[in-house]
Design goal:
Chain B: This is Proteasome maturation protein. The complex is a heterodimer. Chain A is of the alpha+beta class. Chain A has 5 helices and 10 strands; from the N terminus they run H-E-E-E-E-E-H-H-E-E-E-H-H-E-E. Chain A has a 5-stranded antiparallel beta sheet, covered by helices on one side. In chain A, helix 2 crosses helix 3 and helix 4 packs antiparallel against helix 5. The radius of gyration of chain A is 25 Å and the shape is elongated. The chains are: A alpha+beta, B mainly alpha.
């Protein structure tokens, strides 16, 4: 990296020292109308080593759409011998969604770093797409985009950008009923992708302030009968609940 | 969506339910073909049914007409002849063909779609009776 104070001599020199990165963020709540169906689901899906996408809308449609994209991108990579472009993923996705005329209800944000730099696209269920420096989608989109509109600047540092995305998702978690639980981040750079699951847990369970148990003897006992039952433990199994 | 265009793809001759049932002995085979309903045979049951049924056909038509406009009449003619030749190579009647030659010609051998994942003919639960099907095909039956 060049020390500050020495101006770059030409455009190509600036490109060499500019490290493109892409940050995708998502909450972890899956709802079924007004019921939380999954409080810790994964919304950031892998498509290629340096291309990830976040799926909003109908969960099954988003899941299957991203899996198809991942398979097709892998076949394409094997066919051409080159790493995939984010524009390629967007094109295949929008052609598939347009073919199904919006019946496949998945709105997807595709982001990644390829040989041409970092790109971010959003694809809507009917097949339209946008290419912008920052994008939000889903029920909490309005809350999150307000944070971006306020604090986004071009050429931010990586840590500042991570904080900004975290704050935007947190705004969605607190201001929208359809979003909740934890913040997942995915940081993609030219070197690779880092999936930070549970990067922040703003909506944790509260701590009980006092003791709510009654002392034994609070209720007076009038009569007492004891009937011993002789039971033997025949079979014992332990099943772990998936709380992670 | 151009629904008028799709309606033109509906069949001209409408099979009226009850007149020509699909089962043997001339009665409707409810177990295999379901209940009869005139509406089901006239109208599509999903907005995308007709569009999806004819998707490959429409895509081919579009590509061939573009090719004809760019390269002349012979290019699509030659391609269609190759498609027809590749489609003729099939296995015995009760076995599903992989259509590899046709896929390679179309370029769909390096893409994955829903038709590759769902309803894979290699994993279908029913199978025709091999001897009878071969005899029927050879005209011995």
């Amino acid at each position: 990296n060049m020390p500050p104070g020495i101006p770059p001599r030409c455009f190509c020199e600036l490109m060499v020292h500019f490290q493109p990165f892409m940050i995708l963020g998502a909450d972890t709540r899956a709802t079924d109308d007004m019921v939380v169906a999954d409080k810790n689901c994964r919304k950031i899906h892998h498509i290629a080593p340096r291309i990830y996408c976040c799926g909003a809308g109908v969960a099954a449609d988003a899941e299957i759409a991203t899996q198809m994209m991942a398979s097709n991108v892998e076949l394409h990579t094997l066919n051409t011998g080159r790493p995939p472009l984010v524009a390629m993923v967007t094109r295949q996705l929008k052609q598939m969604l347009f073919r199904y005329q919006g019946h496949m209800g998945s709105s997807v944000i595709v982001g990644g770093v390829d040989v041409t730099g970092a790109h971010l696209y959003s694809v809507y269920p009917h097949g339209s797409y946008d290419k912008l420096p920052f994008l939000t989608m889903g029920s909490g989109a309005a809350a999150a985009v307000s944070v971006f509109e306020d604090r986004f600047k071009a050429n931010m540092e990586l840590d500042e950008a991570k904080r900004l995305v975290r704050d935007a998702i947190t705004a969605g978690i607190f201001c929208d009923l359809g979003s909740g639980s934890n913040v997942d981040l995915c940081v993609i750079t030219a070197a690779g992708a880092e999936y930070l699951r549970g990067y922040d847990r703003p909506a944790g369970k509260g701590k009980r302030e006092g003791q709510y148990r009654y002392k034994p003897g609070t209720t007076p006992v009038l009569t007492k009968t004891q009937t011993p039952l002789s039971l033997d433990v025949v079979y014992e199994t332990v099943q772990m609940m998936d709380t992670e | 969506m151009n629904t008028r265009g799709l309606r033109s793809q509906l069949k001209d001759s409408v099979p009226v339910a009850g007149l020509c049932p699909q089962g043997s002995y001339g009665i409707q085979d409810s177990l295999r073909s379901g209940f009869t309903s005139v509406k089901n045979e006239l109208l599509p049951s999903h907005p995308l049914e007709l569009s999806e049924k004819n998707f490959v056909l429409n895509q081919d038509k579009m590509n061939f007409s573009t090719l004809r406009n760019i390269q002349g009449l012979h290019a699509p003619l030659k391609l269609q002849m190759e498609y027809r030749a590749a489609r003729q190579i099939q296995r015995l009647p009760f076995l599903q063909s992989s259509n590899l030659a046709l896929d390679t010609l179309r370029g769909s051998d390096d893409t994955i779609g829903f038709e590759d994942i769902l309803s894979d003919p290699a994993q279908s639960e029913t199978m025709g009776e091999p001897h009878m099907m071969v005899e029927y095909k050879l005209g011995l039956l």
